[in-house]
Specification:
- This protein has about 150 residues and is mainly alpha-helical.
- Helices cover about 50% and strands about 0% of the residues.
- It has a domain at about 10-80 and about 85-110.
- The chain contains 6 helices and no strands.
- The relative contact order is 0.14.
Length: about 150
């Protein structure tokens, strides 16, 4: 897990998290688990998982994404940023930035201090199938004899 329910209070009030739990017990943990799995899926092709000591950037991304999804469970977050009365605009902006940063980490464009998998891991037998064969016995020359 890259974040805890208590850490989400950096982005939303505890009363909102309590309301989510009152409406649907276990929903905050479900959103956190879903975000953590999504982050792992994004990072798996590039890094060795699980991350035993995740960088703070990844933990922050997880907190922002989980907080945004929790709030989305109890209110409709506006799709447009055109109005100034959108109280969730700061969280929405942070969410969009977190998604971009996660993609940048996965692509290797943003370095967070993790050691990337080497080429030997990309070409390992577990990544695909290798086949080899001996010399061809029944070639065109063989069949001409008959």
């Amino acid at each position: 897990m890259y974040c805890t329910p208590q850490e989400l209070t950096q982005y939303v009030f505890q009363k909102y998290l309590d309301k989510i739990e009152a409406l649907e017990p276990g929903m905050v943990a479900t959103h956190i688990a879903g975000v953590c799995a999504e982050i792992d899926d994004a990072l798996r092709p590039r890094f060795c998982l699980p991350l035993h000591t995740p960088p703070e950037t990844i933990c922050r991304i997880a907190r922002v994404m989980a907080a945004f999804r929790c709030i989305g469970a109890i209110t409709s977050i506006m799709d447009t940023e055109g109005t100034s009365n959108n109280v969730w605009l700061p969280l929405q902006t942070q969410y969009k930035e977190a998604v971009k940063q996660l993609a940048a980490i996965a692509e290797g464009a943003l370095d967070v201090g993790l050691e990337a998998l080497g080429n030997e891991a990309e070409n390992s037998p577990t990544q695909g199938m290798l086949a080899s064969s001996g010399p061809q016995k029944f070639n065109a020359g063989f069949w001409r004899k008959y």
